[in-house]
User: Which sequence fits this backbone?
């Protein structure tokens, strides 16, 4: 069983930056593909980015490509989401996700609010 705890959310002005972290415990972190998702008010949870177990492969939603960067530190059991050039439409609760072929594990989420 993997436990995930997100942090780093907050209120930022449009054009600003935030760095989200997701700390994992209870499993072999380095064996999991890690992902970031977000859920805006009144909308379904949507994919943002993912990174392979070894950090070599990354993939992004078109809406964040070129602005967000996902990375991981397997020695610290942590995955990051660097968010630059933030826009009001990036406002959402951001969740991290761990997957290894079976059921996915989710964190509790961290709120990101971008003011215009």
Assistant:
């Amino acid at each position: 069983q993997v436990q995930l705890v997100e942090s780093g959310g907050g209120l930022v002005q449009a054009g600003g930056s935030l760095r989200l972290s997701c700390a994992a415990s209870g499993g072999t972190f380095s064996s999991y593909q890690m992902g970031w998702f977000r859920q805006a008010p009144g909308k379904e949870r949507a994919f943002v980015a993912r990174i392979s177990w070894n950090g070599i492969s990354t993939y992004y939603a078109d809406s964040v490509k070129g602005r967000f960067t996902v990375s991981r530190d397997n020695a610290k059991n942590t995955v990051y989401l660097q968010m630059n050039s933030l826009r009001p439409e990036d406002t959402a609760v951001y969740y991290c996700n761990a997957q290894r072929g079976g059921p996915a594990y989710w964190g509790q989420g961290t709120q990101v609010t971008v003011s215009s």
